[in-house]
Design goal:
The protein is α+β, with helices and mostly antiparallel strands. Helix content is 24%, strand content 20%. It is built from 1 helix and 4 strands, in the order E-E-E-E-H. The chain has a two-stranded antiparallel ribbon with strand order 1-2. Strand 1 and strand 2 form a beta hairpin.
Length: 51
Amino acid sequence: MGVSPSGLWSVEGVECLANCGFGPNMMVNDILYEKVTPELLEEVILKYQNA
């Protein structure tokens, strides 16, 4: 697990999110994101950064 210097972000690898057919996947809090692309990742980061 890694935590950003600001403490705002942490990243943890997991073995399974039970959504293999729609990967790559990521979960933020309780929201599952499917078919994650670099562009979607940027959108999600901006969404939570400005929240």
